[in-house]
Design goal:
heterodimer; A: 341 residues; 8-stranded mixed sheet; 14 strands; 19% strand; globular; B: 630 residues; alpha/beta; 7-stranded mixed sheet; 6-stranded mixed sheet; 21 helices; 20% strand
Chain lengths: 341, 630
């Protein structure tokens, strides 16, 4: 992280990022693993503790900041990204992370998420997607599948879900990735890259709500089928997946097709992942189980696009350089005055 | 230039004149009115102005809803309003004539662009077939109508310029201004200087500058040679306090107020806003002050604007957001969050006529109760209201001082009338504005317990403002109720009761540094006219007129709506009757009645404009003499 200047950094342990508050998520909630992952990543990462600000909205996931011994803001429903943007505008030297849920970031707060993405504000946003409203006790969410039977949809939900990663890519996010709650190591790696990325980082985490939507992502997260139903992306590597690494993705007129390796098909025929290719990333984001393996890892990154907060401060620096010295007297007088008496 | 040469009849001397320019929204009425204002102010008159423009940027030409107007009063004595009744109207087209003529006093002067009163234009603004109001005997009996072929004369005077007809027609406003300058004996120099600078130097169009100057002179000389007007008028200079003056509108004054805050505090000001009439000029003005530490953020919506401001406040900026009534409604949940966080924040509401979209360009002061109570839960804010354009400067600075001193959001109310209205301002000495000292803690008070964000100052009850980036003070603030001191999430009933009362008491204690309420007029007597916000000019003028009629009437004006000045009840009880004029249905009256059990009389009018002084005087007399208007 480039935010610290000079002095040797303190050595942290994950416990240094643990606040004195009792964690109040349900036992078995996927959020615990993500919290662990964040604490571990922060300890390794090397930034100063006092430079982190965690911001959240409302929802189960939004309790996150209370459990981290950094600066934190638990805000109101849907507004975390807008508040975080303000923090970054005031002090771009701070490392600002938003952790919130699918309802908060994509439903009530969807507008702010869109605009922070297109501005490329230097935020790291972790979407804990459990495809359900947990804190309000089980209504369908904007990522729930069509036909979802919940307390508010006894005959099944009618609205098609939003695809968070496609939304992020279309909206201009410059780092787009997906992880799993159960894979702390993968999350830690992606999260660290997201924090290091200059610009808007969007990380979707498949997270299990074991009370209201248990096993929603088990097709992707459980040992026995993960390898067949997901694909771990690696920049520059061919897209191979499957328990015995016997399957891959090949280009076809419609986009991608799943092929078996062997019988004249080799890794050379497969698509090679390129993190910097946004249209490839979009295609990957559209891959849905069971037709396709779902992508895990970094789908897209563009480290060279200037961040909004940096540009704001560049304009200020430019104004200071080109305008006359700050002088209250001349400002008050303005362009046109007259004297009386 | 023979600007003040006197011709046959001696000019008639007047104490004050109200003149209104009106025409199509593309006719340049705001510029003409603005120039008349500057010229009069430089001449030494006291002036007050009010622009009146349609919400549509370019409504269809010639229609009544596309009419743009600019009214000003210029006077040889101290004035507080742009005036009730128009003494002189300049109408550039039939639509302007139609919408404004009945505001002109009987016997008043009406100068029209006769060329525009043709069949097509008369029809466009809805006059019946074959009717021309300029030929109407009744109209001519009531007003002095002067029919000037402005379009033709402007074209003739600029025939040699080689300019196109369209560009030439754009100079008609200057021709009209020239006529008005002749009638009221105003010098041309200031406007000529302005035109040369604006069109010549800034826009690099010296030929346009020259054409406008020629049209202005042509209008002036037309007045001189046509002998159309039987008499000229002169309004001598006012006896204003000595010093350097400028013209200022309320929105400009807010911008300068926050500029002063940035330079006097040494901190950055973050202004996050979403465009809305009539508050957008604040965003425009502040966005040009990046070089003095002002950041502006045009957010995606009203909610994002206040939320970004709150984020900025947490990280240490002086956070301000601005809007109008509908936007304040959208911000209300986040404003409650700022109350819960106890962070300093200034929220400007430039009120306009509501509810909902209402009449965006029209005036009203009906957001008082929204500012005070329009949030969930017990959610007290400090609420201030500016009284006149120049007062916005001081109120902005005071809002920041109170927000920081009490770690509380402050709602600053202005309205469309003072936001767009302008007056001369005796420019304050920059040196005399005190520094704004803002301390931030660097270590925990109690090393045992660590930093406790909700430990309070004993006197103000404010918590401390610890900034991210400060080692050892890491803490969380949240929208959930918090334990006293530690700030940890708490659902304890006793704690909640204490915290609710604490937040209310903290805001109430701002009264310790709020000036006492003063009165204008007798210290006790029959009637106190109590007002707040933009009605200051109308109420003050009404009070002066009532006293001149021998009435025992005083006026008092509130800048501080929450908390009230400490002496307010004592002041109110010194008068037989308290009358509260408001441009709403009696919101302050409701507060005064419920707080003090004082049987205040509410006088209201909600017409999208300011009170007319004369009407207000009559209503007060009605109440005093006959108990009317109760």
């Amino acid at each position: 992280m480039s935010k610290t200047n000079g002095a040797a950094l303190p050595q942290y342990k994950p416990a240094d990022f643990t606040s004195d508050q009792d964690v109040r998520w349900c036992p078995g909630c996927g959020d615990y693993a993500v919290l662990t992952g964040v604490r571990k990543a922060l300890a390794v990462f090397g930034g100063k503790k006092e430079d982190y600000v965690f911001v959240s909205g409302i929802g189960c996931a939004a309790r996150f900041p209370y459990y981290l011994d950094t600066y934190g803001m638990h805000t109101i429903h849907g507004r975390a990204v807008a508040v975080a943007t303000g923090v970054k505008l005031a002090n771009p030297g701070l490392e600002v992370c938003v952790v919130s849920g699918d309802g908060d970031l994509l439903s009530i707060g969807g507008n702010h998420t869109l605009h922070a993405m297109r501005r490329n504000v230097d935020l790291t946003v972790v979407l804990l997607n459990n495809r359900i409203y947990g804190l309000t006790k089980g209504q369908y969410s904007p990522t729930s599948e069509v036909g979802k039977i919940t307390k508010s949809t006894p005959m099944g939900s009618l609205d098609a879900p939003v695809n968070p990663l496609s939304f992020a890519l279309a909206s201009g996010a410059t780092f787009v990735a997906r992880s799993l709650d159960v894979d702390v190591k993968l999350f830690e790696s992606i999260y660290s890259q997201g924090v290091a990325h200059p610009g808007f980082s969007f990380i979707e985490v498949y997270q299990d709500c074991n009370i209201f939507n248990h096993a929603a992502f088990f097709y992707a997260s459980q040992k026995e089928n993960r390898a067949d139903n997901t694909i771990a992306l690696e920049h520059g590597k061919p897209m191979v997946f499957g328990a015995s690494r016997n399957k891959g993705l090949r280009r076809c007129p419609d986009g991608f097709e799943v092929v078996e390796l062997g019988n004249g098909i080799s890794e050379d025929d497969l698509v090679v992942h390129n993190e910097n290719d946004r249209s490839l990333a979009f295609r990957l984001s559209q891959m849905r189980h069971p037709e396709f393996p779902e992508a895990l890892g970094v789908l897209y990154r563009n480290d060279s696009q200037p961040t909004y907060d940096a540009m704001v401060h560049n304009q200020i620096a430019e104004a200071r350089r080109t305008k006359p010295e700050a002088n209250l007297e001349s400002l008050l007088l303005g362009d046109e005055t007259w004297d009386v008496g | 230039m023979a600007t003040t040469e006197t011709r046959k009849p001696e000019p008639e001397q007047l104490d004050s004149v109200v003149i209104r320019f009106c025409g199509d929204s593309g006719d340049g009425m705001q510029m003409a009115g603005g120039q008349f204002t500057t010229t009069s102010a430089r001449f030494g008159n006291d002036v007050a102005t009010f622009p009146d423009f349609p919400a549509e940027i370019r409504a269809p030409r010639g229609t009544t809803f596309g009419v743009s107007g600019f009214q000003l009063q210029f006077s040889s004595s101290d004035i507080h309003t742009p005036g009730d009744i128009v003494n002189a109207l300049v109408a550039m087209n039939p639509a302007g004539f139609k919408t404004n003529i009945w505001d002109v006093e009987a016997g008043g002067i009406v100068i029209v662009n006769d060329d525009e009163f043709d069949k097509t234009q008369l029809k466009k603004c809805g006059y019946p077939e074959g009717y021309n109001p300029l030929n109407d005997e009744q109209v001519n009996n009531r007003f002095h109508i002067f029919r000037v072929p402005m379009s033709r004369l402007t074209r003739e005077s600029l025939a040699d310029t080689g300019m196109g007809a369209k560009d030439i027609d754009r100079c008609r406003n200057m021709f009209a201004l020239g006529v008005a300058y002749w009638l009221f004996q105003r010098p041309l120099d200031d406007t000529i200087g302005y035109l040369e600078d604006y069109f010549g130097k800034q826009k690099h169009k010296p030929e346009i500058a020259a054409a406008n100057v020629n049209a202005l002179k042509a209008g002036y000389y037309f007045g001189e040679t046509a002998e159309l007007f039987p008499v000229r008028y002169v309004v001598p200079a006012a006896k204003l306090k000595a010093g350097t003056y400028r013209r200022i509108s309320g929105n400009e004054a807010l911008v300068l107020g926050f500029a002063a805050v940035a330079l006097k505090s040494g901190k950055d000001v973050l202004y996050a806003s979403y465009p809305i009439t009539p508050a957008s000029e604040i965003l425009h003005g502040l966005s040009r002050l990046k070089h003095i530490g002002i950041k502006t953020f045009q957010a995606e919506d009203e909610i994002a604007a206040i939320c970004a401001a709150i984020g900025g406040a947490f990280a240490g900026d002086i956070a301000v957001t601005g809007t109008s009534g509908p936007g304040l409604a959208l911000k209300s949940e986040a404003l409650g969050l700022a109350v819960m966080y106890e962070l300093p924040l200034v929220v400007i509401d430039v009120q306009r006529a509501g509810p909902a979209t209402g009449m965006p360009t029209k005036n009203e002061q009906a957001d008082l109760l929204q500012a005070l109570f329009g949030r969930s839960g017990e959610s007290p804010c400090i609420v201030l209201a500016a009284s006149r354009p120049s007062d916005c400067f001081d109120t902005a600075i005071e809002a920041v001082r109170l927000a920081v001193r009490h770690m509380s959001p402050v709602v600053l109310l202005t309205d469309g009338y003072i936001a767009n209205g302008a007056e001369p301002w005796l420019v304050p000495d920059a040196e005399s504005i005190p520094q704004i000292e803002i301390p931030h803690p660097t270590k925990a008070f109690d090393p045992e317990k660590g930093f406790q964000p909700y430990i309070r100052d004993e006197k103000t009850l404010a918590r401390s403002w610890a900034l991210p980036g400060t080692p050892g003070l890491e803490h969380r603030i949240g929208s959930l109720e918090k334990e006293e001191g530690s700030g940890a999430v708490s659902y304890d009933p006793e704690n909640h009761d204490r915290m609710v009362r604490m937040r209310a008491e903290k805001v109430a204690r701002a009264a310790d540094v709020i000036p006492e309420l003063g009165v204008r007029g007798p210290e006790s007597g029959d009637v106190l006219l109590l007002g707040w916000g933009g009605t200051f000019g109308a109420i003050t003028s009404a009070g002066d007129k009532l006293r001149a009629k021998g009435r025992s009437v005083a006026t008092a004006h509130l800048r501080h709506l929450n908390p009230f000045p400490k002496n307010i009840e004592e002041v109110l009880r010194r008068y037989e009757t308290v009358i509260i004029p408001e441009i709403n249905l009696g919101q302050l009256a409701m507060l005064i009645r419920s707080r003090f059990l004082i049987d205040a009389v509410s006088v209201t009018e909600i017409k999208g404009r300011m009170f007319r002084v004369g009407e207000l005087v009559d209503r007060v007399i009605g109440i005093m003499d006959g108990g009317a208007d109760r």
